[in-house]
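Incident log, support desk, overnight shift.

02:14 A customer reports that sequence design results differ from what the structure should imply. Their input is reproduced verbatim below. On-call engineer (initials T.W.) acknowledged and began investigating.
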């Protein structure tokens, strides 16, 4: 009987953990939901009002990050958020491995499907249309460069490991979280899906190897920042990539 209760309790904890992660995922989307209401106002070129809304959006984003990260630290005891030069260099080297994965994946997509970009990249590029206001584009840049690296690492790697896979072999959460991570990024073919899954596994290794979510956040940041800056510059200078 005790064993049955123990198994039942474990199942209940897993179910609870899944609901908590889904709840945090919804919380993480609050800034994006807010942006859908702000976008029409931004496009009316009301600079004073748009600036106020832009600042409000930043405050909401900071609050969401603080809330989710605080919960993660409380449950995981991963409280080491210090960043040294060695940490940055380590993350950059892991990022370079990720770039190699992306280059190989892009080459394979070009070879087999005749395209050199994923559906996810094409969807993101479309958000930087010249028809959008500068405040909207700035928010999208921050979303790609800051929001995604922090919140996606917490929700797709940190929280699942802490709430669902604390005692599991490292390869179990690595595979499961990487497949989930890839599934939320638009993929029009199996190569694109596999590429995102491999990048997810690489970021999971960056996290799990030292038990510091800040490590995978740094890798994710390097992965996103180049594209974010390129898209921002293309918008500001009216270029087309």
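02:41 Re-run completed on a clean worker. Output:
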């Amino acid at each position: 009987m005790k064993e049955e209760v123990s198994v039942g309790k474990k199942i209940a904890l897993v179910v609870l953990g899944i609901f908590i992660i889904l709840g945090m995922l919804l919380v993480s989307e609050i800034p994006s939901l807010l942006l859908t209401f702000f976008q029409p106002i931004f496009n009316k070129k009301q600079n004073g009002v748009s600036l106020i809304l832009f600042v409000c959006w930043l405050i909401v984003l900071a609050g969401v990050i603080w809330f989710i990260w605080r919960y993660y630290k409380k449950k995981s005891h991963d409280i080491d958020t210090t960043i040294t030069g060695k940490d940055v260099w380590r993350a950059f080297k892991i990022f370079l491995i990720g770039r190699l994965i992306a280059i190989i994946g892009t080459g394979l997509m070009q070879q087999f499907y005749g395209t050199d970009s994923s559906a996810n990249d094409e969807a993101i590029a479309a958000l930087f249309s010249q028809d959008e206001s500068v405040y909207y584009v700035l928010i999208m840049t921050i979303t790609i460069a800051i929001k995604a690296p922090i919140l996606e690492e917490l929700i797709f790697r940190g929280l699942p490991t802490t709430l669902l896979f604390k005692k599991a072999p490292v390869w179990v959460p690595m595979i499961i979280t990487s497949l989930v991570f890839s599934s939320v990024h638009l993929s029009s073919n199996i190569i694109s899906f596999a590429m995102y899954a491999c990048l997810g596994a690489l970021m999971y290794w960056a996290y799990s190897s030292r038990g510091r979510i800040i490590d995978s956040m740094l890798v994710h940041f390097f992965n996103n920042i180049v594209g974010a800056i390129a898209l921002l510059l293309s918008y500001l200078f009216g270029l087309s990539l």
